[in-house]
From TrEMBL:
Bias-annotated ranges (Acidic residues): 765-776
Spans annotated as Disordered: 1-25, 615-784
Compositionally biased residues, Basic and acidic residues: 15-25, 738-748
Biased amino acid composition, Polar residues: 674-690
Organism for this UniProt entry: Coniochaeta pulveracea
Keywords: Membrane, Transmembrane, Transmembrane helix
One GO molecular-function entry: glycerone-phosphate O-acyltransferase activity
Protein name per UniProt: Phospholipid/glycerol acyltransferase domain-containing protein
Length: 784
């Protein structure tokens, strides 16, 4: 039995969240279903306008009932991340989720909006931190690394037990934060753990004899360098989170969903920031109070392309749900909280690593994305989920083999190729224009130029009318980015707040602008009937109604025509270079260089891939031309695009490996999850490619699975490993449960497919659009 919200109701007819005592305490942060759905529907209009595509991936893994803790990362888009996550979960899984929001943000429109969706405000120490009086240093970093002494300080008035000390950020890295254990006097405090690390020791001692592991090499010198005056710092009071945690516990114990961004705040870095302990406390605390509640943790990867830009793309990927082992819950209850929280954070970090693309800096990300494009021998535009998957695998491989001479040489070659592209101001996929003959290039250029001029006629009216909103949103978002950058110790350029402010400015200014245009139109009709073009019998109220339909329609038409026009405009420069004899040789030479580099990238991946992924060949996402099977082979399915282009083969991928499906049983160290569990499972959920079997919402049918298992010598292509083990009663029950859940999603799959066809979302994108990376001017800005 299912409810109207899409959540399954037990046979008793009672929802899990309603199965509580009638005398249970009132919720501290209640959620109203109709307010939640109404607000989300309105905000989805703005989200769909800002983003060109948002692909949900793996939504079938989300439990349809019972308590779920969603852990989302990276937090790259301030309040927009929350909107995208809530919208995706409501549409794909039928779940409503309460998100945690910073207490400092609960004001104005954001505060009102957070109350409509049942968000839980959380006070953060860094938000309450203030510059401390005087300076601090370590008097004896070797023998007493927990003692901090001040110069001109007054810790008795400023500090308190449970508060925090924050060191300034430096070299693009977040400063150390540490809890205060005891206040010894106006100039001395003791912290909970020893001060370690190269940068903190350098800041607190001024000594240069600190190795890369954060150890002092000169053991004879006990204190800081002579004449050292200490370092500035920030200090924050103790924040009691008891009510917040209890509200989360109650929501989860009642069968609801809670979402959290465990990095603690939004940022624009390319790597995953250290996770805060709150996510572990929420999971362990809930299970400590209700061990049998069935809490599951679902990792969510928020993967963006140009996250701060208008009409960008995103892939929201849901990982395999996992549970906290009972032994960690017992450790948490038996005053071994630090170990239990640490191991839980390792499990969450490992799960998140399987659904995100993390690189140490921006330059590395650009090299990885370039290598991914070079590794695509088909030359066809790959679906966005496969793009994300390839980026992830290449990032993992680079992290493991970055010191290998082959990788070092390949990195330099790819960077040089990128420099040549930047010099010519063209994109990688546009290099293929060099193989066209001169007459074809000329005809193509004039044909596209004609299309661009025609589209410009449809874009110009809306562009002129809506230009105040574009200008205001751009100026204000940049100003807010600078302010956020100045107030943060983790941001690089503050781009994580730009999308939020662009949407907020548009929401506030667009209605005002439309109303102004409508009033001017009504005034003109009232004065002279619009130069005599409007009949006398037309009432003024009808003019107002027509204006509120006409002006938004012009803007929307300009948006749609502008998208196509921008793609065409980007394709004109390489065509001009091919026509110009003085530069054609450069493009021809660059194309030859690209072919050599593509072969080099493919060879390196084919050599190192099997070492890293034992099932490399069976889970290959992009076919190897030298090993391509004959057409029609059952193991190389072909997927055709709507634009009638030639199909590209993609090898079917296996399901999740035990690394993710049994993550709760053997937690691994961070950044050591390198199994090919990151392969794309068949039963995925995407609104615009739902007809493709690889991305179907439900698992393959029995007949299809049996035929494939009979035709494969290695046990078939049905993802048994990622499903469960069928050698026990528990494993059989688990498989049966998942099959029932998958069958229930058949109706949802049909609904999504019909919506996709109606909206025209089956088109995967034009061939002339570069789907990833930033502008090359931004690419030169390194992660400081």
């Amino acid at each position: 039995m299912a409810s109207s919200t899409g959540e399954r109701i037990p046979s008793t007819g009672v929802r899990p969240e309603d199965a509580r005592s009638k005398h249970s305490p009132k919720e501290l942060y209640p959620m109203s279903n109709w307010k939640y759905d109404s607000f989300l529907w309105v905000m989805s209009i703005f989200a769909d306008t800002f983003f060109r595509e948002v692909h949900p991936r793996g939504s079938w893994k989300v439990p349809r009932h019972g308590p779920v803790l969603f852990v989302a990362a990276p937090h790259a888009n301030q309040f927009v991340d929350a909107l995208i996550l809530q919208k995706t979960l409501r549409a794909e899984a039928g779940r409503r989720v309460s998100l945690l929001i910073a207490q400092k943000s609960v004001h104005g429109f954001i505060g009102w909006a957070s109350r409509q969706v049942g968000s839980v405000p959380v006070g953060r120490a860094q938000d309450a931190a203030k510059a401390g009086q005087g300076t601090i240093y370590l008097p004896d970093p070797i023998h007493d690394p927990t003692l901090i002494r001040g110069i001109g300080t007054d810790f008795v008035k400023q500090a308190e037990v449970g508060g925090m000390i924050f060191l300034p950020s430096t070299r693009g890295k977040t400063g150390l934060s540490i809890d205060i254990a005891k206040v010894l006097g106006p100039e001395e405090i003791r912290v909970k753990r020893p001060i370690t690390g190269k940068i903190p020791l350098l800041q607190l001692t001024g000594r240069e004899d600190v190795d890369e592991d954060g150890n002092l090499t000169d053991k004879l010198q006990k204190g800081p360098v002579e004449g050292f005056q200490g370092t500035k710092y920030k200090i924050a009071p103790h924040i009691d989170q008891t009510k917040v945690y209890q509200a989360v516990f109650d929501r989860l114990k009642g069968g609801g969903c809670v979402g959290i961004f465990p990095e603690g705040g939004s940022h624009d870095r390319t790597e995953l920031l250290p996770l805060k302990a709150g996510v572990a406390i929420m999971a362990l605390g809930t299970l400590a109070e209700a061990p049998d509640c069935g809490l599951k943790i679902v990792p969510v990867g928020m993967n963006y392309f140009h996250a701060h830009k208008f009409r960008s793309r995103a892939v929201v990927e849901f990982g395999s749900p996992f549970e906290i082992p009972s032994n960690l819950v017992e450790m948490y209850k038996n005053n071994q909280r630090r170990d239990a929280i640490g191991q839980t954070l390792d499990m969450v970090y490992q799960a998140l690593s399987a659904v995100i693309v993390s690189t140490p800096d921006y330059d590395t990300l650009m090299v990885i994305q370039a290598a991914r494009r070079l590794y695509n021998p088909t030359g066809k535009k790959l679906p966005l989920p496969i793009v994300v998957e390839l980026n992830r695998r290449l990032a993992l491989g680079y992290e493991r083999y970055k010191d290998d001479p082959r990788i070092v040489k390949l990195r330099e070659n790819v960077k040089e190729y990128n420099k040549q592209l930047r010099y010519l101001n063209i994109r990688d996929h546009q290099v293929q224009y060099a193989k066209l003959s001169w007459p074809v290039v000329v005809l193509t250029f004039f044909y596209r130029l004609g299309k661009l001029l025609l589209l410009s006629a449809g874009v110009l009216p809306g562009l002129v009318l809506f230009s105040p909103v574009f200008i205001a949103s751009k100026v204000i978002s940049r100003h807010k980015a600078k302010a956020a950058l100045a107030a943060s110790s983790v941001k690089i350029q503050g781009k994580d707040v730009m999308a939020t402010w662009k949407i907020l400015v548009s929401m506030g200014l667009a209605p005002v602008l439309y109303n102004l245009y409508t009033c001017l139109l009504a005034f003109k009709v009232y004065k002279d009937r619009l130069w005599g073009h409007v009949a006398d019998w037309v009432p003024i109220w009808l003019v107002f109604l027509a204006g509120w339909i006409f002006f938004p329609a012009i803007t929307y038409a300009a948006l749609r025509f502008g998208e196509v026009g921008m793609d065409i405009a980007k394709s004109l420069r390489p065509l001009v270079l091919c026509i110009n004899p003085s530069s054609s040789y450069s493009i021809v030479q660059l194309r030859e260089r690209r072919a050599e580099l593509s072969a080099q990238v493919t060879d390196v991946i084919n050599e190192l891939g099997p070492e890293m992924f034992p099932d490399f060949e069976s889970t290959r996402l992009v076919p190897d031309p030298s090993r391509e099977r004959p057409t029609g082979s059952p193991t190389t399915p072909t997927f055709k695009r709507r634009d009638s282009e030639s199909a590209f083969p993609v090898s079917p991928a296996v399901g999740d490996s035990p690394t993710t499906s049994h993550i709760g049983q053997s937690p691994a160290l961070r950044r050591e999850s390198t199994q090919s569990s990151r392969a794309i499972p068949r039963n995925q959920s995407f609104s615009n490619i739902g007809q493709v079997e690889l991305f179907a919402t439900r698992p393959p049918s029995r007949s299809r699975s049996r035929s494939r298992s009979r035709s494969s010598s290695n046990g078939g292509r049905f993802p048994i490993a990622g499903f469960t083990q069928l050698d026990s009663k528990e494993g059989f029950n688990q498989a049966s449960q998942k099959l029932r859940e998958a069958m229930r999603e058949r109706g949802e799959m049909r609904r999504r497919k019909s919506q996709a066809e109606a909206r025209g979302l089956m088109e995967l994108g034009s061939e002339d659009e570069d789907e990833d990376g930033e502008g090359w001017d931004e690419a030169r800005k390194k992660d400081k």
